[in-house]
Amino acid sequence: MHQLTLAEIARGLADKKFSSEELTKVLLARIAQLDPQLNSFISLTEDLALSQAKAADARRANGESGALLGAPIAHKDLFCTQGIRTSCGSKMLDNFKAPYDATVVAKLAAAGAVTLGKTNMDEFAMGSANESSYYGAVKNPWNLEHVPGGSSGGSAAAVAARLLPAATGTDTGGSIRQPAALTNLTGLKPTYGRVSRWGMIAYASSLDQGGPMARTAEDCAILLQGMAGFDANDSTSIDEPVPDYSASLNGSLQGLRIGVPKEYFSAGLDPRIAELIHNSVKELEKLGAVIKEISLPNMQHAIPAYYVIAPAEASSNLSRFDGVRFGYRCENPVNLIDLYKRSRGEGFGPEVQRRIMVGAYALSAGYYDAYYLKAQKIRRLIKNDFMAAFNEVDIILGPTTPNPAWKLGAKNSDPVAAYLEDVYTITANLAGLPGLSMPAGFVDGLPVGVQLLAPYFQEGRLLNVAHQYQLHTDWHTRTPTGF
Ligand code: GLN
Q1: Do 141 and 161 contact (CB within 8 A), yes or no?
Q2: What pLDDT is recorded for position 416?
């Protein structure tokens, strides 16, 4: 039963082959048995899951239907869940029980999804390896000595190991697409504003976006359908109608113009990944797509710009954690300044402290123009590059990551080495564009992802291309040994 996708679960529940309660029990037992190897969950919510499953079964018995009704999922532990610990992977929020549900959580619960638990993540979503979590590193089910990617590494590892069919993630600079690539999943970062950020603990507010992680594009369509939509509580939410994503899966790719940026195939890319990307291009050509070389000339500036803007916003967002209002408070403070200093010094881990310092520096009066303002200008140039490219093509295709999953600890002494792994993903966040990563093959037994980018609000087009590709390839069906 644990091999079923969301789409198959929906059919099985509709055909009364099994109940949501039965399925939930099977998956909870599987998590108890296998997750100790992976560390993909921070909290399990067994009681909530069983009551939601029973309620979903009752709704089906009453004639209700819906692709998510009774479907087991998990939430990255930065989505607020009422009365349940919402830790953001940090000691700072280890004792924090959210007083309300994030919009995404509430919407999925209303659609009948069953929450099995909260998944592990890099502290405050800062990282590309899921090694900065206060709750310990997550392991990649494809090789337990390797990282699963980050920051949504817990969601990725759990879904890849068939502990559950799908989970939510968030993507500020690649945290849905990169762990999806490194664990053989399909993951989609929606257009900025498509999915509400209300109740999603902020890292960098102008870049953060929640989205689905699953094994197939078909399942991402189902989960995104439940997540997307306007929310008056999020001032950057966009009031655009939500299309039927599942209905868009079967469009023909005949004549689809796919742009492949020449800058993507630079020296930093593992040549074995380059070859797999070229194979995926050939596959899409067979399905009728037309390939065109394009250029994104400002891509080389994306990492420096991102690693100014994201920490700048983080330093501002994280100022609310002061030991007074939320979360961790140090023991026996001697005065207010001591309370602030020690609560933050003891509550935040080293990567979060590094980013707060970088961000505060970039925003300080003397350096604002040189760093923050400059980075914002680069952001605009990157957006303009994409706008020009999308005048010529419908989709942009390239690798999701320059390398496959690295060994645990391999990049710990050099944070910049880890930052460079984000080179292909962060541009979509800087421009606010939707992006999807899907399985494209293996290097040394480790999964490789191909990334597709589309114009604003064209999530349906991304899902369509990925679904057609998955009808003709079987990379996404491969299961890690031992799971
Ligand atoms: N790796 C990037 C960072 O550390 C992106 C993280 C994310 O998307 N949340 O900032």
Answers
A1: yes
A2: 87
Residue 462 lies in a domain: no
* Single residue among 372, 397, 426 that ends a domain in this structure: 372
Percent of the chain predicted with pLDDT > 70: 100
State which residues form the domain around 123. 6-254+439-450
Protein residues whose CB sits closer than 6 Å to any atom of ligand 1: 125-128, 151, 171-175, 203, 310, 422
Q: 430 C-alpha vs ligand 1 centroid, how far in Å?
A: 12
Tokens representing 3 are 């091999």
Residues 171 and 319 in one domain: no
Instruction: Compute CA 160 distance to the chain's CA centroid, rounded to the nearest angstrom.
Output: 14
Q: Which of 426, 427, 429, 437 to mutate to test the pocket of ligand 1 (most atoms within 8 A of CB)?
A: 426
Please tell me the predicted confidence (pLDDT) of residue 67. Answer: 98
Give the mean model confidence (pLDDT) for residues 21-46: 98
Which helix or strand (DSSP H or E) is residue 154 part of? helix 153-160
Could you tell me if residue 328 is inside a domain?
yes
Point out the catalytic residue in the list 87, 133, 151, 280. Answer: 151
Does residue 324 sit in the same domain as residue 246? Answer: no
Domain count, the chain: 2
Q: How far apart are CA 208 and CA 356, in angstroms?
A: 17
* Strands of 290-294's sheet in order across: 41-44, 114-119, 72-76, 166-170, 210-214, 186-189, 435-443, 446-453, 395-399, 257-261, 290-294
Report how far ligand 1's centroid is from the alpha carbon of 416 (Å). 12
* Same domain membership, residue 246 and residue 135: yes
pLDDT tier for residue 267 given thresholds of 50, 70 and 90:
confident
For residue 172, the model assigns a pLDDT of 98
CA of 419 to the centre of ligand 1 (A): 8
Token reading at 434: 């939707």
Phi, psi torsion values for 195, nearest 5 degrees = -115, 135
Distance CA(34)–CA(130), nearest Å, equals 18
Q: Are residues 363 and 237 in the same domain?
A: no
Q: Are residues 206 and 331 in the same domain?
A: no
Q: At what angle do helices 217-227 and 103-110 cross, to 10 degrees?
A: 110
Final residue belonging to a domain, choices 372, 404, 425: 372
- Could you give the CA distance from residue 2 to residue 23 in angstroms, rounded to a whole number? 8
What is the pLDDT, as a whole number, of residue 221? 98
Catalytic residue list contains 280:
no
pLDDT over 80 at 181, yes or no = yes
Element (H, E) at 74: strand 72-76
